[in-house]
Amino acid sequence: MINDKCQTMDIFISTGEVSGDLQGGMLVEALLHQASGKELEIVALGGDRMKQAGATLLANTTSIGSVGLLEALPFVFPTLQIQNQTKQYLQNNPPDVLVLIDYAGPNIPIGSYVKKHLPQVPIVYYIAPQDWAVPMLGNAPKLAKFVDKLLAIFAEEAKYYHKQGIDATWVGHPLLDRMQNTLTREQSRQLLGITPEETIITLFPASRKQEIQQMLPIMGAAAQLIQTKIPQVKFLIPVSLDIYRDAISAAVKQYNLSATILEGQALEAIAASDLAISKSGTVNLEIALLNIPQVVLYRVHPVTAWLARKLLKINIPLMSPPNLIVNRQIVPELQQESATPDNVAQSAWELLFNSNKRQQILDDYQEMKSLLGDMGVSNRAAREILKIAGKQGDSVPK
User: Fold this and answer.
1) Which of 34, 141, 200, 262 is an S-S bond match for 382, by CB 3.0 to 4.6 Å?
2) Does residue 255 belong to any structural domain of this protein?
């Protein structure tokens, strides 16, 4: 808790997966920048980006995320271990504010625990579950029981959660901040040793272990088909986590791709490309904000898909963020049975050589960008969090 003498503010942040670590890292930087002379002690569940930004990691959660029922089974025990460790830490070290970022499956139990056992600790949810786009997810009633403040990244998200009885404020999307100093196409190509006339396709097969199994073979086979039609094409493959490098290297060899595997240069790879082929996720927004046409695909295990459709009655017509934001398909999105190498290759071919389709995507990107808010998102979120933490500190007996 805040100490009068040293004015230390304790903040605990919980997130997971690669995208949560990215957004958490940006938030940590903003919190430290906005602290106005206060000493901050930030402890987190996250990854290397948050650690590099200045947080102390209680546990690394970047590689234990999943989508789907069967896919989650291997991560149940490690997730429960981390949750128990987190609950014990919070019990012994109550923070001035708990910040939950995305990662709904593990974060909702943590938030519920803190509300019950540490009711004096305010809880902020930043980048909330996507119930505003897919209400059947059913997370909103759970959040309403423990969230004191929700920082929404979309205007419609703020409206939706406000109707659910949650105090919600729209701050905008943090990726707007990330794109401020991105290199141009020419600069990125020069940095990566790519000539102006080369045809470049950037591939994003995986940020989760399950995607190595479900997505990489499809993307590799699709790239091979494209390479057969366009022998001079070159592929760039940024690696989201080093543990996936061997599998990606093996796929490049298996499909005989003319590809360069990169680490830590995802934005440069996107900016340098003529087209991106990506799994669904936060990276789709990065691609859109850099004005690169893209093909999005996603598959889960067939049994997971069957259970979701038949038993849980879950229907997700749109999955990728650019399409969700405008509530229609503006980039090709191939889900489950439609996500075949032939379909991916055909969609990619059309976006490479049909100038009308490319231009339509670029026009639609502008509409999408208009719905993301203004830059300075991470700073706005940080100020809200610090304000809430400060009020909590003021309530502590002096």
Assistant:
1) 34
2) yes
Would residue 161 be called left, alpha or beta, if left means φ above 0 and alpha means ψ between -120 and 50 degrees? alpha
Query: What tokens were used for 302?
Result: 């067939």
**Pair (288, 265) in one structural domain:** yes
Residues of the domain holding 261: 181-369
Tokens of 179: 């794109």
149/26 same-domain check: yes
Burial 333-359 (b: 16+ CB within 10 A, else e): bbbbeebbbebbbbbbbebbeeeeebe
**Is there a single domain that holds both residue 50 and residue 98?**
yes
Please list the ranges in the chain whose pLDDT falls under 50: 2-5, 71, 395-398
How far, in Å, CA of 94 to CA of 396, rounded? 12
Q: Give the Cα separation of 354 and 334 in Å (integer).
A: 19
pTM for the whole structure: 0.88
Nearest of 294, 290, 375, 288 to residue 334 by alpha carbon? 294
Q: Can you give the pLDDT at residue 310?
A: 62
Identity (one letter) of the amino acid at 363? Answer: D
Neighbour order of strands in the sheet with 123-126: 56-60, 39-46, 8-14, 97-101, 123-126, 149-152, 168-170
The CATH number given to whatever domain includes residue 388 is 3.40.50.2000
370-387 pLDDT tens trace? 999 999 999 999 999 999
Tens of pLDDT, residues 347-375 = 999 999 999 999 999 999 999 999 999 99
**Based on the domain organization, do 97 and 166 belong to the same domain?**
yes
Identify the pLDDT of residue 75: 55
The answer to whether residues 152 and 255 belong to one domain is no
- One domain, residues 233 and 273: yes
Examine the domain organization and report whether 22 and 115 are in the same domain. yes
- What 3-state DSSP class applies to 7? coil
Number of domains in the chain: 2
